[in-house]
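Materials and Methods. Structural model of Dihydrolipoamide acetyltransferase component of pyruvate dehydrogenase complex. The 437-residue sequence of Dihydrolipoamide acetyltransferase component of pyruvate dehydrogenase complex from Couchioplanes caeruleus subsp. caeruleus was retrieved and submitted for structure prediction as follows.
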Amino acid sequence: MSADQVFRLPDLGEGLTEAEVIQWRVAVGDTVTVDEVVVEVETAKAAVEVPVPFAGTVAVLHAEAGSVLAVGEPLITVAASAAAPDGGSGPAEQYRTEERAGSGNVLIGYGTGHAPASRRRARRGRTAGTVAGVAAAPVSREPAAPRVISPLVRKLAREHGVDLAAVVPGGHGVIRRRDVEEAIAAATGTAAVVATGPAAAARPVAVEAVAGIERIPLRGVRRAVADKLARSRSEIPDATTWVDVDATGLIEAKNALADRGVSLLALLARICVAGLRRFPELNSTVDLAAGEILRLPYVNLGFAAQTDRGLMVPVVQGAHLMNAAQLGAELSRLAGLARAGTLPPAAMTGGTFTLNNYGVFGVDGSNAIINHPEAGILGVGRIVDKPWVVDGQLAVRKVTQLSLSFDHRVCDGGAAGGFLRYVADCVEKPAILLADL
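The predicted structure was written out as tokens:
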């Protein structure tokens, strides 16, 4: 007799401990094959397609879209095909052995194969109903607790001291977030109508009582960014310096190299790398435990990319070894993956310095936050026509503002100013780069 096989959320690497279920690719009753992608999850670094290591029929989906699972929690249960003999040595049995052993090596984030296109169709709109519809399956060993409770709901209940055994579940025996929120409101006596006037100002109003509030979970990529920026502000004594520059020469160089695939961002990246080679203080990180500044012999250049999932910072590994055309190709490739939601976590780690072209948002300047644990970030504002003095004569030129936020522990204003001035000179006269070739 074939036993059901429970596939748990695997270790996704990079120190990640949880993931949010974005979209199921299968439903209960579907037949799956080994290495077929069954669900898309989002970690703190990227969206990941998760393949299942078993073959058989989907019996239980243990989480609905929007649920957050910790590594090791049940993800999907597959009933093995009756045709597979017990004790077999095929791929399914091999993966069952790994699962029992808790190897965690089934997935390294992106799957080991792909199912036929007809089996990988998205099942939008069915997720919640599918999960709720299989609630009768015994997925909990707690005899008094409801059968289906997402980790997010458990956390909410725990934080507010709600006994889930006493909560009346919604449809299909599923305890939802709003069920717990109603229990919290009942316990605290929160009113649905908010008082106004002096009496209301005299006492705090529970957030749950205010109508129209939109709750947006701080998780996935956005939470990772928030954590990193908060850590940067709390740990790094940063300072910012800036300068206005005539970027007419940079625009002319970009136009001349357009047929070589060299973009404006690629030129800025090449200039930035050249500046870091001249002022290595800014290509450093601080080891607080050892009380040391680590000056790095390589440049891994991060760059800010706005996506539907929020701000991401892909990293060009080994940027110090690339020319402008190579940088342009790599910047374009990574930006495309980021916007498609397929950027691997490894492509967002290991940065030593960040380039932020916030001018694409139509702004002139910014006091950018350093991407911890790096030591600096170069910002580039929009390029606009402005009056500028050239050889003693007033002219209309393409002008932009460059800003540098730097960690004052790794360098002083002299080094930071020297780096920014070198970058500004290269922007105004890109031919200066030829001296380093």
